[in-house]
Design a protein that fits this description.
20 helices; 14 strands; Cytochrome Bc1 Complex, Chain D, domain 2; disordered N terminus; alpha+beta; 32% helix; single chain
Length: 503
Amino acid sequence: MKGLILIALSAIAAFAFQGVYTEIPKTWDIGAIEESHLPPPDPSVEVQYAPEEYYNSLPEHVIYKTYLRYAEGYQPEGYLDSLHSLEPEIVFDVNKIKTQQDWIEAGKEVFFWPVSGTAKVDPQYRGIENTYLVESGDPITAEGVYPFSRYLIQEKGKVLRGTLSCATCHTRVMSDGSTVIGAQGNTAFDPGFAVGIVEKFKVPKENLDPGMYSLISTPWAPEVKQRVTSRTRDEFVADLMASPNGVMVRQGVGFLPVSVPSLIGIKDIKYLDKTGLMIHEGPEDLMRYAALNQGMDMLTSYNGFIPLGTDEFTQLPTPNEWNHPFGYAGKRYSDEQLYALAQYIYSLTPPENPNIAAPELLAKGERIFIEQGCVTCHTPPIYTNNMLTPVDGFTPPESHFEKYDIFDISVETDTDLSLKARRGTGYYKIPSLRGVWYRQNFFHNGELATLEDIFDPARLKDDYVPTGYKLSTVTSKSVPGHDFGMELNDGDKSALISFLKSL
């Protein structure tokens, strides 16, 4: 059956590349969404997705051309003046897509499309308007480009700061000022979000507003609700300001933020999200995942709790009249836009690896990688076995062993994301180690800044100070789990890490 499905998907792609757009996979197919999603860890929770007619009633995005933003001192003379003289230009036109490369190029426009256009930009202004992002450590490219958002023109003479595109979270500026599209992003997202809570959304000091509650609360984990409602705005803002680049609060993750994943090579990865929330077997799954993550997951019912619901979170809001807690209006991508996006993401490639080590050192590291049993979970050539590992406190039902790929051993890492978040499943997926050299902030919440920190036995002690993320109220804490390789001597650790950085 699986072979037949793959053949069918290939046929769909072949038709699409010839311009027969009616064969594009349908995004909002409730049956397919239910089939591909893992259930919550609490079996009593019933999940219901927004009806198809509701989804189809949402206005579609119109993808206009976007323009680069520059840091202060780098913006070409007269640049903003020239933007204010331009006519808006629609750049996604399905009738012009004829080849596979056309799909990829169209998907790139979708990838960089900002779902939110914020305040108008004064044509006399020179520099990045959101200066708090620069001050908080947001990197810029060697050319002075701020790559995490772009200027947007939907009306002549009106230039907007476009924000919250796929590129916002999945663009990385390297130490040499080059960019890697699709990698774990390194924008200072949470500090920017913190400023937005105070200055844009005007949340009262005494409490968090319902938007923040809906963003992170979990109906089957009352302790998360208590954590949320017991904190003042300023306490929550302090936690956001503590997030390092590459770690961010995301809807449905519970109380703690998560490290941003890399999208490069995702075509080979069977499960999406750190918790393996969704099975990924083709572009249609990635399309549905994208639709959910642009707001439809906030309209999903969990035992009657709808994160963006009205009437105390029990009713779907009127179509066209809801806003995501991050501030953008509810819209949807067309099936063609999402299909193009999937093709672009599948086309992403890693940057050239600058880590050069002696062949004998790499050979030694690979031998240690095998001897330590790392290959069992992180199996070449993609360096994951594409399986799910249950967390402590969760026993997989027998039916799961028939439906999912389960490696029934826990690595004993923190369980909050898997058990106390709306994205929770009771599992974590076994991640690929490809490209770890251009990542940072490891483990689910980004508590360990480097690969070296993973193999440091000191992190298991209560007086350890996490090198990555930690709550603003925490001075020290242990970072448990995944204790493989910690007993190696320094030479063997160095060889192993050199091998890992070569992947």
